[in-house]
Amino acid sequence: MNPGLVTGLTGVLIGGIFNGSFVAPMKRMTRWSWEASWLVYTLVGLLAVPWIAAWLTVPRLFEIYAGASASSILSVLGYGLGWGVGSVLFGVGVSRMGLAVGYGLILGLIAPIGTFYPLLMLHPERLWTGQGQALTIGTLIVLAGIFLCARAGRLREVAEAAPASPAPKSSFAGALLICVLAGIFSPMLNFTFVFGEELQRKALEFGATQSMASNAIWPLALTAGTVANAGYALLLLKRNNTWGDLRGPSSHWLWGSLMGVLCFASFLVYGHGATALGDLGGIVGWPLFMSMALITSNTLGALSGEWKNAPRAAWAYSLAGMGLLMVAITVIARGGKT
Description:
Blueprint: H1 3-21, H2 34-57, H3 61-67, H4 70-97, H5 99-122, H6 130-160, H7 169-185, H8 188-195, H9 197-205, H10 218-240, H11 250-276, H12 281-303, H13 312-335
Helix pairs in contact: 1-11, 1-12, 2-10, 2-11, 4-5, 4-7, 4-8, 4-10, 5-6, 5-7, 5-12, 6-12, 6-13, 8-12, 11-12, 12-13
């Protein structure tokens, strides 16, 4: 197998592992509200760490930004802000629709939109190649795996909770709209990578290594995403009067910071892997990244005891879903050889 392909696949999949595990430290933050945890994660992982990493690994960073076209800068900022909005809508949609159904619906949109929008915009002719066909088949398998994992989660929810009265149609319609919008906006993080290629090229010209060139993109994209994430957390802190949480245990600051580091590490390693995959790296890598993130989050959930009371059918659906995601990874990876 091509060494570049091995490096790229390894990076994308490890990035998915980091992304699927970054919320795990929140379970240790039992004395903080969600909004306090999310604010610390946002300020560390989406603001501080990306700028520090870029400053250390990309020479003449601000000269790169000054010399880049306005369209590239605005694309990265705009898509980064869109991703931030999607991140907020993700949390709201899941809380209103239910974890399993909301998560499955949103991921069911994120995977194909994040894959095929940039492909059709930048490389439509590649859709009909062997690589394009493998990508299409693999993405369809990803969607099937997401459906089975969502079904497993729904069965677990039903087994663990008392039946609730049906939500009013208007409430359901609102929750559905939020989930759809979350699915549309959330893949925009991948668009910052794909459409920010000019910044990578300039970083290489100014002396950045191939593996670190994508670090020129993340500070702009994630700073824009900070606006929505931090803004929503601050709104909740004010509305719920939970400012006092931030004066809580110092260990919670460490756990929140770890969330941020893991989240940014997922983007950092994903960018390295996707770059190594070639000109379609950000397109081929996205469904692999999403698949591994879902496999990791489900596995950690099971290991932490979240599924101890789940019925056998839920376990069966979950294992079948993760099996399909592994098949999808194999199909897309093999297609990357063509």
